[in-house]
Every structure is written in structure tokens, then in C-alpha cells.
Amino acid sequence: MSLKDTSQSPRIGAAQIRLLERLTNACAVSGDESEVRTIVLEQIRPLVDEIKVDALGNVLAIKKGQGENRLRVMLAAHMDEVGFILTHGEDSGFFRFEVVGKIDVRLLPGKAVWIGREHVPGVIGAKPVHLTTEEERKQPLSLESLRIDLGLGNQNKVKVGDRATFATSFARLGPSLRAKALDDRTGVASLIELIRHAPPNVDLLAAFTVQEEVGLRGAGVAAYAFNPDLAIVLDCTPAMDLPAWDESENTQYNTRLGAGAAIYMADQATISDPRLVRHLIETAENLKIPYQIRQPGAGGTDAGAIHKQRAGVPSVSVSVPARYNHSPAAIARLSDWKSTLTLVHAALERLTPDILNLDR
Fold this sequence. Notes:
This protein is 24% helix and 26% strand. The protein is built from 8 helices and 17 strands. The protein has helices at 14-25, 34-44, 134-138, 182-196, 217-226, 274-287, 303-306, 334-349, and strands at 50-53, 59-63, 71-78, 83-89, 94-100, 112-115, 120-125, 147-149, 163-166, 171-173, 176-179, 202-209, 230-238, 261-264, 291-294, 315-323, 330-333. Strands 1, 2, 3, 10, 11, 12, 13, 14, 15, 16 and 17 form an 11-stranded mixed β-sheet that branches. Strands 4-5-8-7-6-9 form a 6-stranded antiparallel β-barrel. A hairpin with a 2-residue loop joins strand 10 (171-173) and strand 11 (176-179). Helix 1 packs across helix 4 (182-196), helix 4 packs across helix 8 (334-349) and helix 6 crosses helix 8.
């Protein structure tokens, strides 16, 4: 398949990549999304008809369409990322911490971090491997054995309760993008562009949500407030396309880099509305937009909370695949981001109220 581009479609160029760089370099661990929220408000305030920040910190914006019998379509992307929260400080500059969201503790020793809204630098310290005993190396690494080290004299720049995240700056690697928090700043950047190019046949209800990584908390509140006719969630899903170590076929790939937008049929939290799945696939095939089916299984998106609100909300997720999510650095393909943005925009343009009258 080749990517069909139209003059009406949003495009990803230098400006959009710079915006993604700002978003991924921002620190917005669940519960303290203010840095990303500030960027979102700056970008969309001139573009929308209504906007507010709700009690949990979600940004809820409405871009009204034109004509009669318009569908109220909710688009959601989460602003938060996995990270850490400081729980106890010592005079020597060490801080105990807990993880926020799902992070593999084995990844943490020696990793540089940014702490707080001022991005105070630190490092996660552990006993060096050459000073451990053979018995210690046999034991699983415990979070309790780790500390964030700010260096003597810097401990007064942060406080207990501050969030910390991996100190990984955005970079282009040929056709790829490397950054922390591509999950889900690709979705946030895409949603901003969809507002900028909102098709007039729908009322676009944009939810930039909080606390997705700790239980889809903001999305449920946002969907209840919007009461939409249907919802599309923009996220970033794990690509399990690494080589199989025994040289057998890797069948548990989930998604692959370079194969296009990932359309969900089901995950641990949601069975996608089949009418919306068909609409996305038909749109992609008719316009020759690269796509793939995100394999059912573990994980979930904001759709898991959205589809259960009020009398139920038909929902589907479309994601950008990325390797190494929830780690110090993820890798995604620029082409997959472009395919995802183009597909969702084209699907919105082709939506009519009749879709809700179709047999599931």
C-alpha cells in the first residue's frame, strides 16, 4: 500500500515534528501533567469553540462542525507518561521513590532522570555489579534497593511528592523517532493536528486526558462530560517485532514498525465496536493508507473507560506502533505516525450518522 495524501489532510512536516519534540521533552508523569497541558492549551485555544480544564486536569475542547445531524465524535489522547514519585529524602541528596505506571525495575540502575517541573537532573543509583556477590546477582532487583541521587547540595531543589521521568531528549534517527513518552505524545500531537484540520461534518470533542497510565482515570470523566455518539482513541502501542531468539517465526508481534496505523479489534480493556473497525479498514483500503491490525491481547487504552460511560459509547483505538514503550527511550517510524493521522482524519471525513444504524 502507498500513502494517499490530499490537500485537505493534515500533514506532518517540520513544524509538527518540532511540536512532538516539545511534547516528548516535557515531563508529565501521571498526576502532574501540567507541562504538557500548558503546551496543549497554547496550541488549541485559538482553534476551538469551547475549552476548559476539568477537575482532574483533562483538557476538554469542542470544535463545532456545520450542517444538521452532526455526529458528536470524541477523540482522546492521554497527556501523562510513566515515571516516578519521590517518597523520602535524605540530607546526602538521595531520595527513595516509587514507580508511577508500569515500568520494569531491571531497566532503572544508572538511568539519568529529570525531577520536578524544573527538570532537576539526577541519576538512579544501585550497587555496581562488580561489588555485588554472586548470591545478590541471583536475586531479582528490588525497587527498595534503588535511590535517585541528586548530588550533595541539590536536594533542596526538589521535594517529596515531585515526579521524575527519564532524561531522554527527542532525536531523529533516519526514518525513525526516538524519545521518551512517545506513548502517548504521538497521540497528543495528532489530536492537535486533527483539531487544526477538523472536518466540518462532525462536532469534534477533543479530550487530552490525564492519569491513563494508572488506570484510565481521566478518560472516564471526560467521556461522561462529553456524552459523545462515538469515540476514537489515539495512542501508541508496543511493537513486538524484535527477532525471535531461536530463529523461529515471531508470531507474537502485536504490531510492527513500518506497517502503518494500528487498528484495534480488541485488547484487555475493550472489544472495539465492529462498525468502527470496518469503517477504518474500508477507509484505509479505499485510500491506500497503510494499516495493520493490532493483535488482541494484553494492554489497553482510554477506550477501556470511555466505552462504559452512561449508556455506552461505541469506541475504537488507532495507535502508532513503537518499540520499548515504558522505558527510557522508545522508537517509532515517522511513516506510521503519518499513516495514523491521515487514516483518522479520512475516517472522520467519511462518517455519517448512518454508521450507528448498521448491524454490529
